[in-house]
Amino acid sequence: MLQQQLMKAPQVAELVNVAESAMSKWVHFGFIPHVKLGRAVRFREKDVEAWIEERTEKGRATLAPEIQRLNGTIRTFGRIRPENKQ
Questions:
Q1: How far apart are CA 65 and CA 59, in angstroms?
Q2: Quick check: 42 pLDDT over 70?
Q3: Which pTM was predicted?
Q4: pLDDT tens digits, residue range 51-62?
Q5: Residue 59 maps to which CATH number?
Q6: Structurally, how many domains does the chain consist of?
Q7: What does the alpha-carbon distance between residue 23 and residue 25 come to, in Å, rounded to a whole number?
Q8: Roughly what angle, to the nearest 10 degrees, separates helices 20-28 and 9-16?
Q9: Containing domain of residue 59, as a range?
């Protein structure tokens, strides 16, 4: 049933480029999703990937197509212009 291999803390630490001591703290405070098997702590790869994706922020270039329409104006990166003057 469990087809996915579980990762150890050093593997995840290397994946996210942090010290192993940081991983211990993250587990202790519940910052990163993990599985406890007795005293052993393991990480599901799909959970870690989803956790990273949740924390990925869009850069300004990826927001360019997302234009907000506010009160008959178009707002693009802090500049406001009337909609009819494109």
A1: 12
A2: yes
A3: 0.63
A4: 999 988 776 655
A5: 1.10.1660
A6: 1
A7: 5
A8: 110
A9: 6-82
Could you tell me what percent of the chain has a pLDDT over 90?
A: 55
- What are the two backbone dihedrals, phi and then psi, of residue 77, each rounded to the nearest 5 degrees? 50, 45
Q: What is the pLDDT of residue 1?
A: 45
44 within domain boundaries: yes
Of 2-11, 34-43, 68-77, the poorest mean pLDDT is in: 68-77
Token pair belonging to 44 = 């599901």
In a domain? residue 1: no
